Automatic annotation (TrEMBL):
Keyword Metal-binding part of the UniProt annotation: no
Cell compartment(s), UniProt: Cell inner membrane
Molecular function (Gene Ontology), one example: hydrolase activity
Matches recorded under InterPro entries: KdpC
Record keywords: ATP-binding, Cell inner membrane, Cell membrane, Hydrolase, Ion transport, Membrane, Nucleotide-binding, Potassium, Potassium transport, Transmembrane, Transmembrane helix, Transport
Regions that span the bilayer: 24-46
Name of this chain's protein: Potassium-transporting ATPase KdpC subunit
Membrane topology: Single-pass membrane protein
Subunit organization: The system is composed of three essential subunits: KdpA, KdpB and KdpC.
Amino acid sequence: MANILPVSPARASSGTAPLADRGALRGAVVLAVVTLAGFGFLYSLAGVGIGQALFPQAADGSLVERGSRIVGSALVAQPFAGERYFQPRPSAAGYDTMALTGSNQARTNPDLRKRLEEARAAVAMREGVAPSAVPGDLYTQSGSGIDPHVSPQGAAIQVARVARARGLARDAVERLVAGHTEGRQFGIFGAPRVNVLALNLALDALAASK
């Protein structure tokens, strides 16, 4: 004889049968599998595929190659040594992509004010100009610490030093800067800017052709 579950007197008097959750576990497992496969795998795979199809360069990290060698990314600043190169913005993260950060210091912080004055004086000495003529982006740090761009003014103030160090005509370097000046994003957002890595690579190519 089959076992019969006991029914409370109140339920028996109401004429209702006890609820059974025989399919609850199966439904939960199926939902978990579908969610994991759909949103954890297929969605990501579709996103990668669409990115590679429509924007392959950006999807691969906007890598910059020199011959067959990768020298950096157009999205990441890197330091350049020597008078022969244009310099990027200072970095609180040491240009480390694993430690993206700004200074996190308030404008009223005396240590910040002191550092800015010292950095501006150092840039002014390097470029042979008055401290008041140094554009702000050459002595302030970006929020990410790896901003690859400087303003057209930040590039222009370095032209004389770079041209002199490389033995190039100043107007040739100025044309190079102008040719690498990017406009506003979609003509609306942001401000004109110059990618320092792209400019320095073009500068090396120009010097090699002489």
